[in-house]
Structure of (Mediterranean fruit fly) hypothetical protein:
Amino acid sequence: HTLTGHSGKVMAAKYLQEPIKVVTGSHDRTLKVWDLRSIACIETKFAGSSCNDLVTTDSLGSTIISGHYDKNYASGI
């Protein structure tokens, strides 16, 4: 299956909720949450700059921290 929706290269991806979902970060300056059962994007957040890494605080993905090329970070989605 292919997750289609980012307009730029995907630089980071992490499983959420015991791999029911995936969060991706891209050069298009967005973070997207994907439902792997329906193969659909269920949430998009504008990040402000290109994402280069993602970290989750637990297996449920209750907090997502994204690192960016402009040396900033953001938490939550």
In short: The chain has a mean pLDDT of 87. The CA atoms of residues 7 and 62 lie 26 Å apart. The domain at 10-69 is CATH 2.40.10 (Thrombin, subunit H). The chain has no helices and seven strands.
